[in-house]
Design goal:
52% strand; globular; 8 strands; 1 helix
């Protein structure tokens, strides 16, 4: 079972809208994946709002409506995870020793 809340540290580019085109800076941030036991997921930046630190009470329907490129369904076959967002293209990942690996980032499962 891979359901749960997973976090990773990463850098993201934050645009400076007051500067010239393309200006901004890279800042340290947190990326997350929330996976339900029923095969739904939501991914994003910063910390997700999960009641009690568990994916059980997460509002996946709202995430799919508000953020269809980063929410949808996932399938697990062995160590391979495939994320299928409501909008956009499928993206592969892997399960390695209790962690989730996507786009070269290792997302550690958080304790509830």
């Amino acid at each position: 079972m891979v359901e749960g809340v997973y976090l990773a540290s990463a850098h993201r580019f934050v645009f400076d809208v007051t500067g010239p085109p393309g200006s901004g800076e890279r800042v340290a941030s947190t990326r997350f994946y929330v996976l339900s036991a029923g095969g739904r997921f939501h991914r994003g930046w910063d910390l997700p709002s999960v009641p009690g630190g568990s994916a059980d009470g997460y509002d996946f329907a709202a995430a799919e409506t508000e953020d269809p490129y980063n929410a949808g369904f996932y399938d697990v076959q062995g160590d391979v995870v495939v994320f299928r967002p409501v909008a956009g293209i499928a993206e592969p990942g892997a399960v390695e020793g209790g962690a989730l690996v996507v786009e070269g980032l290792r997302f550690e499962r958080t304790a509830a």
